[in-house]
């Protein structure tokens, strides 16, 4: 056998040995039984036994040792405002009806509440002609997003405590420059610990907001939802270990701080690495006297969140460790080897003088030698047999190596109760990959990688106990999911590698999901938005026939009334001719503004053409209907033009990020400005400056 053939056989061994694993071993179904620790020592022992190191040496210094707790400052007094309010106004684009999502901009039909830098500005925006700032709240920290509920403003964010001191440089590990002595030199060594905050303001007088509740927690704010008057916030804190044991998470309500007892932490035996304290906080936004409810779970780091009106589903992806892979591989492959080879492999595998990696290499050599001993024809037959076995189970390989763990937590008013856990093969894209319907949980996942053509896409239906009752697997090999939208008994899934297949999936029978139809077209949709039962809008990116992005934002109108033959009835491209276009909607659905009643569709857009030295940032506004499709009404920009009106100042903070409407007025919001325009012709009505723009660079306008 030639050298190149020998190399190919060794490469095949690595693949086929994994395949043997899947033929022989059936993956167990984890129970993820929820438990609580009996004592702090039990928590410490659990973490020491199961956790991989997550820290980088040095002594951990706890910021709480200073005794100082973060307190949000109250707002400076402002001007009082009138009471006129719009009868028709937009709200945040959300996923689930009745479940509000926090955002960087909110409005209540009269006031606009917007985040810029570390400030929240309350703007009296209706009527537009008298638009003015009512008050501004400055927060010590980074504001993530906000809720507004009646006369309450709820603010979420993070701040970081930095501390440290000098330490001596070790000459044995530092190479000095020639002729420079480093003996005795010192350098700073810094530590940081994130803290999250939840502030509640009484804004009955918008001119003078008053801080009424102040919660601070160890960890980083992740996300929140609001159902009725209750806010549910997720905070995550990676476990920090001292020599004496783990640091317990801290919760502060006002000036009262307390550690969470180890006996109040829920955990699961199945987790063995990357431990994170996950807080679920329930807060009554309308009753300041009601104490918040908190539950703490020891989980993997939550990567996505779906919330229905009854349940929080937090999910994360787990991978089979390399050590476990090796163990399961060898124990699976041995029974499938010829008897004369089994004994040799057993000797190597059961030896104690080699690492797992070295054992794998040695076994690979044994199998290579055996293949060569069969001669060219026998070796070829042996290889062919392995390839056939590999082809029959290669899809199952991906499902066993990468799985999404799902935790279901029931919420109702102040109640937060852990329910159950489950898992499915693959990884989820975002919150729209998940849905709850008629007591079932539906989830779309991708396994494998598109870059090596090993990826597959799947749809699973789980019952109320998170057991898989229905599955639709192995869709669009070599592609991965770019967007999903569940609409009742159907789901729409977009995958992409070279073209954009839009799958129409029937979920009317939870035990037997099925593809009803498929549409292939260039490009892909990053976000899908329902128009009515038979139409949806896609916002994504255009690509050429080879799958290369063209730099254009693509809007599509899909007609799915004939489920077997979905069609794109209309499309609109933004950019082209060397322009590179982008919209925040591609990454954040809350930037999408749509009203079927008003025939309004608006998205923020940035266009760059570096070669032609052209730049645009603003909002594209469309007259839209199923019949008339995408009709560009015009654009609104916050860019500042010079006297000649031929050049525009570049200001990265001036990019429009959100838009909304109140009655017949269209508002665009950037970090520096709120502009009110007529919905009839987009003519400017008024504008309010939030902060001074940066006018350092000038580019010609392009749109």
Task: Reconstruct the topology from this structure.
Blueprint (H helix, E strand, L loop, with lengths): L2 H22 L9 E3 L3 H11 L54 E3 L3 E6 L2 E6 L7 E7 L3 E8 L2 E17 L17 E17 L7 E9 L1 E8 L2 E9 L2 E2 L2 E2 L3 E4 L2 E4 L5 E4 L7 E9 L8 E7 L4 E4 L3 E9 L2 H12 L5 H11 L6 H18 L1 H27 E11 L2 E11 L8 E4 L2 E8 L8 E7 L5 E8 L4 E8 L2 E7 L2 E8 L7 E9 L1 E9 L2 E9 L5 E11 L7 E8 L5 E3 L10 E3 L4 E10 L4 E12 L3 E9 L2 E2 L5 E4 L7 E5 L2 E5 L3 E6 L5 E6 L7 E4 L3
Parallel strand pairs: 16-18
Antiparallel strand pairs: 1-16, 2-3, 3-4, 4-5, 6-7, 7-8, 8-9, 9-14, 10-11, 11-17, 12-13, 14-15, 17-18, 19-20, 20-21, 21-22, 23-24, 24-25, 25-26, 27-28, 28-29, 29-30, 31-32, 32-33, 33-34, 35-37, 36-37, 37-38, 38-39, 40-41, 41-46, 42-43, 43-44, 44-45
Could you characterize what this model shows?
The chain is mainly beta and 703 residues long. Among the domains are: 3-29 and 321-393, no CATH class; 428-574, 7 Propeller (Methylamine Dehydrogenase, Chain H); 578-703, no CATH class. β10 (220-227) and β11 (230-238) form a beta hairpin. 40% of the residues are buried.
Keywords:
703 residues, Methylamine Dehydrogenase, Chain H, globular, 6-stranded antiparallel beta sheet, single chain, mainly beta, 46% strand
Low-confidence stretches: 1-29, 52-81, 163-191
Helix residue percentage: 10-25%
| Strand line-up in the sheet with most strands | 1-16-18-17-11-10
Distance between the termini: 63 Å
Q: Would you tell me the structural class of the helices and strands?
A: mainly beta
**Biggest β-sheet description:** 6 strands, mixed
Rg measurement, Å: 29 Å
**Share in β-strands:** over 45%
Q: Tell me, what is the CATH class of the domain at 428-574? A: Mainly Beta
CATH-level-4 superfamily name of the domain at 428-574? YVTN repeat-like/Quinoprotein amine dehydrogenase
C-alpha geometry: globular
CATH architecture of the domain at 428-574: 7 Propeller
Question: What is the fold-level CATH name, i.e. the topology of the domain at 428-574?
Answer: Methylamine Dehydrogenase, Chain H
Helices, by number, come to 6
The mean pLDDT is 83
- The strand count comes to 46
């Amino acid at each position: 056998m030639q050298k190149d053939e020998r190399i190919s056989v060794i490469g095949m061994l690595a693949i086929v040995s994994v395949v043997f694993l899947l033929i022989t071993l059936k993956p167990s179904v984890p129970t993820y039984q929820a438990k609580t620790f009996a004592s702090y020592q039990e928590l410490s022992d659990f973490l020491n036994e199961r956790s991989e190191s997550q820290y980088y040496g040095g002594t951990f210094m706890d910021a709480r040792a200073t005794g100082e707790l973060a307190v949000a400052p109250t707002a400076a007094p402002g001007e009082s405002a009138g009471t006129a309010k719009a009868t028709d106004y937009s709200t945040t684009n959300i996923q689930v009806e009745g479940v509000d999502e926090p955002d960087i901009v909110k409005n209540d039909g009269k006031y606009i509440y917007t985040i810029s830098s570390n400030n929240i500005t309350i703007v009296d925006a209706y009527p537009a002609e008298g638009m003015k700032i009512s008050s501004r709240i400055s927060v010590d920290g980074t504001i993530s997003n906000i809720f507004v509920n009646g006369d309450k403003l709820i603010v979420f964010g993070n701040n970081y405590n930095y501390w440290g001191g000098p330490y001596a440089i070790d000459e044995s590990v530092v190479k000095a420059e020639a002729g420079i002595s480093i003996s005795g030199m010192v350098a700073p060594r810094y530590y940081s610990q994130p803290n999250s905050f939840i502030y509640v303001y009484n804004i009955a007088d918008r001119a003078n907001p008053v801080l009424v509740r102040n919660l601070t927690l160890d960890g980083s704010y992740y996300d929140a939802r609001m159902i009725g008057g209750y806010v549910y916030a997720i905070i995550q804190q990676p476990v920090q270990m001292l020599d004496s044991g783990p640091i317990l998470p801290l919760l502060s309500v006002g000036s009262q701080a307390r550690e969470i007892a180890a006996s109040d932490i829920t955990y699961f035996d199945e987790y063995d690495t990357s431990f994170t304290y996950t807080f679920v906080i329930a807060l009554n936004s309308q009753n300041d006297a009601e104490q918040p409810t908190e539950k703490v779970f020891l989980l993997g780091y939550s990567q996505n969140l779906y919330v229905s009106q009854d349940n929080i589903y937090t999910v994360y992806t787990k991978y089979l460790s390399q050590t476990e892979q090796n163990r399961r591989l060898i124990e699976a492959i041995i029974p499938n080897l010829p008897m004369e080879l089994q004994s040799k492999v057993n000797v190597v595998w059961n030896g104690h003088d080699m690492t797992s990696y070295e054992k794998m290499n040695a076994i690979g050599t044994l199998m290579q030698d055996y293949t060569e001993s069969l001669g060219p024809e026998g070796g070829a037959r042996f290889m062919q047999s392995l390839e056939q076995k590999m082809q029959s189970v290669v899809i199952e390989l991906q499902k066993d190596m990468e799985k999404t763990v799902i935790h279901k937590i029931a919420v109702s008013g102040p109640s937060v109760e852990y329910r159950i856990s489950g898992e499915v093969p693959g990884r989820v894209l975002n919150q729209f990959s998940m849905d709850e319907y008629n007591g079932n949980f539906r989830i779309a996942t991708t396994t494998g990688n598109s870059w090596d053509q090993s990826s597959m896409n799947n749809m699973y239906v789980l019952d109320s106990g998170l057991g898989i009752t229905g599955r639709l697997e192995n869709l669009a090999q070599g592609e991965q999911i770019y967007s999903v939208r569940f609409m009742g008994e159907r789901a729409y899934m977009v995958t992409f590698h070279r073209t954009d297949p839009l799958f129409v999936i029937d979920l009317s029978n939870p035990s037997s999901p099925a593809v009803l139809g498929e549409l292939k077209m260039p490009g892909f949709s990053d976000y899908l938005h329902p128009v009515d039962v038979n139409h949806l809008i896609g916002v994504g990116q255009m690509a050429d026939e080879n799958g290369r992005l063209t730099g254009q934002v693509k809007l599509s109108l899909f007609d799915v009334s004939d489920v077997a033959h979905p069609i794109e009835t209309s499309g609109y491209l933004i950019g082209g001719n060397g322009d590179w276009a982008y919209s925040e909607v591609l990454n954040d659905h809350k930037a999408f503004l749509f009203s079927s009643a008003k025939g309004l569709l608006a998205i923020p857009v940035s266009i760059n053409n570096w070669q032609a030295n052209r730049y645009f940032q603003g909002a594209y506004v469309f007259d839209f209907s199923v019949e008339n499709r995408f009709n560009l009404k015009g654009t609104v920009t916050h860019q500042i033009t010079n006297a000649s009106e031929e050049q525009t100042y570049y200001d990265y903070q001036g990019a429009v990020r959100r838009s909304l409407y109140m009655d017949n007025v269209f508002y665009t919001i950037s970090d520096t400005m709120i502009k009110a325009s007529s919905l009839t012709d987009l003519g400017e009505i008024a504008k309010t400056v939030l902060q001074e723009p940066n006018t350092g660079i000038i580019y010609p306008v392009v749109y």
